[in-house]
């Protein structure tokens, strides 16, 4: 088996030029998001773990000069996920400090058995960054390794057993609280939440912002307007979501969704039921994904500064490596509401 992987190998596998592969990794030139995603997936598949040095030098020659920061993930972010650009910036920042980024996929079997990923050796790693890691028990296992660790979003945390790690989050509570308040001010009093509030900490904070805004403005919180099934439910299946919406005691005037993915699923289901967005119901997402600008109507959402979060994540983990005894931090990065046509004439503050 070939032990050294080059950018040319990735290009040959995909039928692309090495120049195209280099541009994709460096974030330069005009390359479609689909092509960039294909290149990233193939790089991971072939074991090309370094994203910064895109010449044709073999991987093993490059990594011998760099220290390792390990990325643990249950699901590698695609181009629609806020983490895609975040990780690109993260890698660029750590590479300037002499670190390389190594990817380790955590499988469901690993979580169930509480095993570390194959080929993961804590003794060779300077720090850990975790994304799409939402099992509390497994996250505690990671923290118990005693390595400098940063979670980019995480599980809903039990206050009695906090994670011994830094946590980086997009600001969720205040933005959704503001959205809910603005809807109430515009006489939208029947507001539902769509998505598993316990899927991750950011979803929980969005749901909490929604719920507390209702209570603070003298509206009772009722799950009669909500679809809160666990994330294992088939939200992407139109038949299932149509049935869940039809099964609500009353159709809400607006759905605030846990993310853009769920909001787009909701728009499709609403249309299939013969209803219109925003005429019959307003739909609001979170993430500002590329698809939010394509779906009709265009989706009102909350923008996450992905690249800036990547730089903050890198700097925080580099600081933790240098100062492992300093108090752990939970950092929220400011987000911004993006008004589009799925929320009708309601105007939101975009501060």
Quick synopsis:
By secondary structure, this protein is of the alpha/beta class.
Please describe what this structure looks like.
- With 351 residues, the chain is α/β, with parallel strands linked by helices.
- It has 3 domains: 58 residues, lambda repressor-like DNA-binding domains (434 Repressor (Amino-terminal Domain), Orthogonal Bundle), CATH 1.10.260.40; 139 residues, Rossmann fold (3-Layer(aba) Sandwich), CATH 3.40.50; 140 residues, Response regulator (Rossmann fold).
- Helices cover 38% and strands 15% of the residues.
- The chain has 12 helices and 11 strands.
- The strands form 3 sheets. It has a 6-stranded parallel beta sheet with strand order 2-1-3-4-5-10, with helices on one face.
- Strand 3, helix 7 and strand 4 form a beta-alpha-beta unit.
- The longest helix is centred in the C-terminal third of the chain and has 17 residues.
- This is LacI family transcriptional regulator.
């Amino acid at each position: 088996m070939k032990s050294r992987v080059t950018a040319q190998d990735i290009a040959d596998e995909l039928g692309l030029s090495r120049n195209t592969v280099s541009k994709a990794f460096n974030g330069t030139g005009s390359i479609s998001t689909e092509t960039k995603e294909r290149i990233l997936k193939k790089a991971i598949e072939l074991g090309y773990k370094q994203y910064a040095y895109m010449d044709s030098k073999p991987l093993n020659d490059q990594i011998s000069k760099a220290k390792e920061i390990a990325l643990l993930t249950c699901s590698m972010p695609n181009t629609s996920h806020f983490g895609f650009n975040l990780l690109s910036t993260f890698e660029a920042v750590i590479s300037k400090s002499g670190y390389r980024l190594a990817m380790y996929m955590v499988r469901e079997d690993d979580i169930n058995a509480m095993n570390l990923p194959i080929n993961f050796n804590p003794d060779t790693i300077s720090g850990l960054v975790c994304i799409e890691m939402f099992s509390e028990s497994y996250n505690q296992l990671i923290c118990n390794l005693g390595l400098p660790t940063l979670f980019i979003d995480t599980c809903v945390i039990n206050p009695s057993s906090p994670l011994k790690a830094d946590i980086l989050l997009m600001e969720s509570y205040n933005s959704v609280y503001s959205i809910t308040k603005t809807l109430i001010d515009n006489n939208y009093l029947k507001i539902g939440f769509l998505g598993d509030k316990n899927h991750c900490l950011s979803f929980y904070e969005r749901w909490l912002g929604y719920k507390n805004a209702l209570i603070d403005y003298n509206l009772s919180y009722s799950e009669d307007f909500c679809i809160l099934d666990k994330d294992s439910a088939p939200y992407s299946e139109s038949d299932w979501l149509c049935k869940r919406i039809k099964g609500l005691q009353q159709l809400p005037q607006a759905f605030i969704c846990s993310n853009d993915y769920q909001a787009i699923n909701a728009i499709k289901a609403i249309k299939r039921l013969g209803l219109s967005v925003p005429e019959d119901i307003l739909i609001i997402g979170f993430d500002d994904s590329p698809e939010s600008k394509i779906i009709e109507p265009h989706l009102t959402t909350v923008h996450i500064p992905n690249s800036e979060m990547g730089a903050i994540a890198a700097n925080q983990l580099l600081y933790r490596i240098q100062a492992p005894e300093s108090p752990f931090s939970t950092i929220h990065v400011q987000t911004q509401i993006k008004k589009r046509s799925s929320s009708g004439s309601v105007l939101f503050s975009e501060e």
